[in-house]
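Example record used in the benchmark description.
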Amino acid sequence: MTFHTDPEHFIPIRKCDLVNHLCGDLGSDTAEAEDLRKIARILEAIIHYEYHIRLEDLKTAYAPFDPDTETHPLVPLNKAEKLQHLEDLIGRFIWLLERANFKRLSQADIEKAIREGTQWGLRFDVDFSMFDKLEIFARGAATLKRKRQRGFWPWTRLEEYEVPVYRRLVIILRMKKHPQVPPYIDTDNVYIKIFKDIARMDLEMLLPGSRVRMRPLDQGKVAVPVATGITVTGYKVFSLGAAGLKMLTALSNLSSMILLATLAAGAFGYGWRTFSGYQNTRRRYQLVLTENLYFHTLDNNCGALFHLLDQAEEQEFREALLAYYLLWRQAPEEGWDLETLDRRVEEFLERTANIKVDFEIHDALEKALRLGMIEQCPAGRLRATHPHEVLRRLDHLWDNYFTYNTPPLCAASEKNAFAS
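Model output (structure tokens):
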């Protein structure tokens, strides 16, 4: 399989590979490279700790709706509290997907994909009224090259064709009571699914409750031959005049019954063959669908939260480190403005790693400024903080996450503190 991916915010480089790449650009054994490794190590620890807090909040919000849970709440939630947890879960989930550089698909995007049908020539009906909540996120709009046989015979040559895909697709949904929802589905649960390499025209196959429907062309292939056969058979029978009527009154005669059965079989034969071909195509599609979902599913439910949070955490690290590195090593003393930094990071990745991205400069700047890695001048230009000062600030931040081991207050201070 071959992919051609359009530039997006997502940076497809592992953390350790990025650090090694930047240190190699500095010279692996230099003092500057060692400083950068120290910055990367403590930056990774800080971001991981911050995301661990986010994870615990997400797990708390998801707990009442997790279909795979093995724990039981000590205090059950009432209806209002559960609704509040659901809104909190959806809000936190959207925040997480944005940090992992996913794009939220609109209702119009989803309906357009469903109207286009599948690459199998099938059409689906999706009743959106069965969903209480439905959000779909995609990342990595790409074109995948696949091969298929030109004809029906095993010896026909393969041809290559292109399929627009989403490299990653995330669905979060909650069903509600509906005739199409099976009774064994608990509509209190929220389901989270992560898929890879899903054809954009096959989006509807991931939604529960979607039903295959025949296209008007397929319906015509079945109805027209049947109607034509009936018409021709009736014409042949009644064109016999009195002899035809006599034949109809002699249905008790075995030979007459066989004759009419043969005529009826001819009338319905072609239409049935067309309908059977359609059903065979549908069965082949469902078989391939089952196989594809088995190999294209990455994670589910609570496991999906861990998966997505890890991706968002790594993305935050990459953005902050790249923004700092380019300002530190390539910017002049007066620094760069926002647009220049954005452009230089993209050029650096394309030149040195052959990777095209649309760098998310605002996320990178927010983190680097908050952590003291970058300073903003009064004129609005951006400058990198000296590596030793960055290490001091990050170390101070890390040391002060927990302050339980601080010296006790003196008696006078304690008295004043309680009095206040």
